[in-house]
Design a protein that fits this description.
This protein has 108 residues and is of the alpha+beta class. The longest helix has 15 residues. The protein starts with a helix and ends in a 6-residue tail after the last strand.
């Protein structure tokens, strides 16, 4: 319930406030996309922590650049899916940790 509410707030921010010029981020993926990925794939407390730290770094004192979210996963369920059904790619980082990269071919 809380997770879906927070994701809806992020959706509203991404759709409406970026039209008003508030959508300039020093990082890729943007801070709102970074937060969305964490809220979809991590515990809520972990997502808040990582989002807060990321927003603190999104200013002129930090260089910015590419910073993919890192999540912990211990178990995967394999399905026979087509590439257009995969929302995120997980790239191993080590110790059950993965970089999570958005699949731009996802149609869902």
């Amino acid at each position: 319930m809380l997770r879906s509410f927070l994701l809806k707030l992020l959706w509203i921010y991404q759709k409406f406030f970026t039209l008003l010029g508030f959508g300039s981020c020093r990082y890729y993926p943007t801070c709102s996309e970074y937060a969305k990925i964490h809220f979809e794939n991590s515990k809520i407390s972990t997502a808040f922590y990582h989002t807060f730290i990321r927003i603190l770094r999104c200013n002129q004192l930090f260089e910015g650049g590419i910073e993919y979210p890192i999540i912990k996963k211990k178990r995967f369920v394999s399905k026979n899916m087509g590439i257009e059904e995969i929302k995120y790619w997980l790239v191993p980082k080590g110790n059950d940790r993965y970089y999570i990269i958005k699949n731009f071919l996802f149609k869902g």
